[in-house]
């Protein structure tokens, strides 16, 4: 079963514009949805805590995320982004039951209860991000919702040197925040994520994405909401098409979750 912080962050994983709503891609670390055994192998959460059988095993317990494209919306964090495809979200009657109390950037004041589901509305301050992700992170209000993002003065301070697809040369430093510019080769993705991943250049920003010849090649068999029948195989890449039922979400994440 997925740990509590992972459950909370799975609900906000679909907000990532950086992946062009293509949930078959692996965003730059720190990630935004879980790679644990019973979660989708290609989605990693904002508090990396992957297990040994995940294709990607992030290191720190931080709440950062890639930088979704800014759309000029209210930076106050009040706008809740509804998933573009059906996703497993925690049910609610009020936002006070949403989030993870021990994680300042993902506790109840960072969520709205929309149509009976918890929807992430964004970080509220730099201090939330530091307390959640550690020094070197800030709340990037240029995105909607606002996300905890790695801060920088130059791109040399960005990324993860030990991960070929996410070294500092794959970032720019813009507005004081690290911006991922994309993977550059299939070899980078294999070396970073594992066999079966390729650099998906069909997206506006290239990401390491699970490759396929049929949808049956996609997903995590042990996770009902993220197994092969929750994916399409499009142009040779796995694309998450959404959960199919409330039962899938309960079986994957536990009681209280539904498909929305």
Structural summary, described in words:
The protein is an alpha+beta fold. The chain has one domain. Helices cover 12% and strands 18% of the residues. It contains four helices and 13 strands. It has a three-stranded antiparallel beta sheet with strand order 1-10-9, with helices on one face. A two-stranded antiparallel ribbon has the order 2-13. Residues 1-18, 20-24 and 30-79 have low confidence and may be disordered.
DSSP helical segment count: 4
Biggest sheet: strand arrangement = 1-10-9
Helix content: 10-25%
Radius of gyration: 17 Å
Strand content: 15-25%
Q: Could you tell me how far the N terminus lies from the C terminus, measured between alpha carbons in angstroms?
A: 20 Å
Q: What string gives the helices and strands in order?
A: HEEEEHEEEEHEEEEHE
Low-confidence parts: 1-18, 20-24, 30-79
Number-wise, the strands total: 13
The overall pLDDT, averaged over residues, is: 76
What would you call the shape? Answer: flat
**Major sheet size, sense and barrel closure:** 3 strands, antiparallel
Q: Structural class of the helices, strands and pairings?
A: alpha+beta
Number of domains: 1
Short description:
With 260 residues, the protein is of the alpha+beta class. It is built from 4 helices and 13 strands.
Secondary-structure map with pairings?
Layout: H1 4-10, E1 25-26, E2 88-90, E3 111-114, E4 117-120, H2 126-133, E5 137-140, E6 147-150, E7 171-174, E8 177-180, H3 186-192, E9 197-200, E10 207-210, E11 231-234, E12 237-240, H4 246-253, E13 257-259
Antiparallel strand pairs: 1-10, 2-13, 3-4, 5-6, 7-8, 9-10, 11-12
């Amino acid at each position: 079963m997925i740990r509590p912080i992972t459950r909370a962050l799975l609900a906000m994983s679909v907000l990532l514009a950086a992946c062009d709503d293509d949930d078959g891609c692996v965003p730059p670390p720190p990630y935004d949805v879980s790679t644990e055994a019973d979660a989708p192998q290609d989605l990693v959460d904002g508090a990396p805590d992957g297990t040994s059988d995940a294709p990607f095993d992030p290191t720190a317990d931080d709440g950062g995320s890639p930088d979704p494209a800014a759309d000029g919306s209210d930076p106050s964090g009040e706008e809740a982004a509804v998933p573009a495809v059906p996703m497993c979200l925690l049910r609610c009657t009020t936002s006070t039951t949403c989030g993870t109390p021990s994680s300042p950037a993902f506790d109840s004041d960072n969520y709205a209860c929309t149509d009976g589901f918890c929807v992430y509305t964004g970080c509220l301050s730099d201090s939330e991000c530091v307390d959640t992700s550690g020094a070197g992170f800030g709340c990037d209000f240029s995105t909607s919702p606002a996300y905890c993002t790695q801060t920088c003065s130059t791109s040399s301070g960005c990324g993860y040197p030990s991960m070929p697809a996410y070294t500092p040369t794959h970032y720019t430093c813009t507005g004081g925040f690290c911006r991922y510019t994309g993977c550059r080769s299939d070899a980078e993705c294999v070396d970073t994520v594992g066999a079966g991943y390729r650099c998906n250049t069909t997206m506006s920003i290239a990401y390491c994405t699970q490759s396929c010849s049929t949808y049956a090649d996609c997903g995590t068999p042990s996770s009902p909401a993220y197994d092969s029948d929750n994916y399409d195989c499009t142009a040779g890449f796995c694309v998450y098409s959404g959960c199919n039922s409330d039962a899938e979400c309960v079986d994957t994440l536990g009681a209280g979750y539904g498909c929305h």
